[in-house]
Amino acid sequence: MAVDTLEQAESSTLSLDVEAVRRDFPILSRTVHGKPIVYLDNAATSQTPIPVIDTIRRYYLEENSNVHRGVHFLSQVATEKYEAARRRIATFLNSPVGCEVIFTRGTTDGINLVAQTYGRQHVGAGDEVLVSHLEHHSNIVPWQMLCEEKGARLRVIPINDRGEIIMESLDGLLTGKTKILALAHVSNALGTVNPVKEIIARAHERDIPVLLDGAQSAPHMPIDLKDLGADFFACSGHKMYGPTGIGILHGRAKVLNAMPPYQGGGDMIMSVSFEKTTFNSLPYKFEAGTPNIEGVIALGAAVDYLEHLGMDNIAAHERDLVAYATEALREVKGLTIIGTAKAKAGVISFVMESAHPHDIGQILDDEGVAIRVGHHCAQPVMARFGIPATARASFAAYNTRDEIDALVRALHKVNEVFG
Questions:
Q1: What is the pLDDT of residues 256-268, one digit of tens each?
Q2: With 0-12 CB in 10 A as exposed, 13-18 as middle and 19+ as buried, what is 326?
Q3: What is the CATH number of domain 53-308?
Q4: CATH architecture of 6-42+310-418
């Protein structure tokens, strides 16, 4: 995953027809403030291709019905499409057991599910939950809430000045008190790709389960959960070219079966009386109520689209963009990149001497360039580097070197205005 030079990136680029990809995303052809849009905010939300949009439209035109409980034709069709999406997603993650894929509202919902079920079962007074200094708030706050409720302690794996986990500190933090390790696969704020396979192996040597926040990895690189060995893996559809409000929590069947339900209601039960409720089997035990049916089916289409492009191709293309952007941004006076890990995914965060990140974002928007500014729901990361915020450009399969050139031109404009 590491790319240190532009030449290495170019040699690793595989076959991805970016112009053909761009034609699948109609929004990329629009203008903003009279200029062609340059969308570099993919770590927040990716755009949606025509095949996924068509899948949503077709669902409401031809297939709309509730799932699992109907015997009529439309319900049977919707149920088959819904469960087919689950099977495709399991294959995408290299999970041999489809029932281990639970549909959620997104990564945040998946992490909260684990904290409120597995966490409440296993974390008690004096125990510890381990996270890293790179985490998104969604992988901090649920564990803080759990620790406050249980009288447990949240501990943090430190990072170095490049934004990399200090591996030498890990073994001392993995103790008999550690009940779960929750870790970002890729940092949303810095783009650091954590050595998660090694970290998971070290945790498992001590029988400590691991949750991976895969929000920033699932859209950008091949995910092989069988190989990684994570006990839980959460990701979000809207970062994977799918719709908002839908996500995935993958868990080991043995662990999921031992966990209590997250919510009560329809579809998560086998039988109900006023005396006792018997819960459904996996994965339905964790899918109470009418689900986001069109979201699930559309997420299946998004996964099909990603696999059509090829995850290796996407990863190689984005490595090229990161390397090219890293070189190009050196031309901008007073710009400093925050997060220079050897292994990075498609994110570059930076600050400028001449302007606050919010001013940078406004000038870039005037030039048609969409980036994200702020603390990126990762305030501890900002505190680690002694800054309140960064400007963040993040890439997807449809981005180009020409768009990075447009970003650089707009940043020169920032210096003209504020310098």
A1: 999 999 999 888 8
A2: buried
A3: 3.40.640.10
A4: Alpha-Beta Complex (3.90)
Task: Measure CA 162 to chain center.
Answer: 21
Residue 214 CB neighbour total at 10 angstroms:
32
DSSP assignment string, 109-145: HHHHHHIIIIIHHH--TT-EEEEETT--GGGTHHHHH
How far apart are alpha carbons 31 and 133 in whole angstroms?
38
Q: Which residues are catalytic?
A: 377
Residue 323 scores a pLDDT above 50: yes
- DSSP string of 343-396, one letter each residue: BB-SEEEEEESSS-HHHHHHHHHHTTEE-EEE-TT-HHHHHHTT-S-EEEEE--
- Could you give the 3-state DSSP secondary structure of residue 266? coil
Q: pLDDT tens digit string along 241-252?
A: 999 999 999 999
Tell me if residue 210 falls in helix, strand or coil: strand
Q: Give the count of beta carbons closer than 10 Å to the beta carbon of residue 125.
A: 9
pTM: 0.95
Distance between first and last Cα of the chain: 36
The confidence score (pLDDT) of residue 97 equals 79
Q: Sketch the domain layout of the chain as residue ranges.
A: 6-42+310-418, 53-308
Return the bridge partners of 391, or none. Answer: 350, 373
- The residue assigned the tokens 């981005």 is 399
Alpha helix ranges (H) inside 1-129 = 6-12, 18-23, 50-58, 73-92, 107-114, 120-122
pLDDT in tens, 90-144: 999 999 778 899 999 999 999 999 999 999 999 999 999 999 999 999 999 999 9
What residue type is assigned to position 408 of the chain?
Answer: V
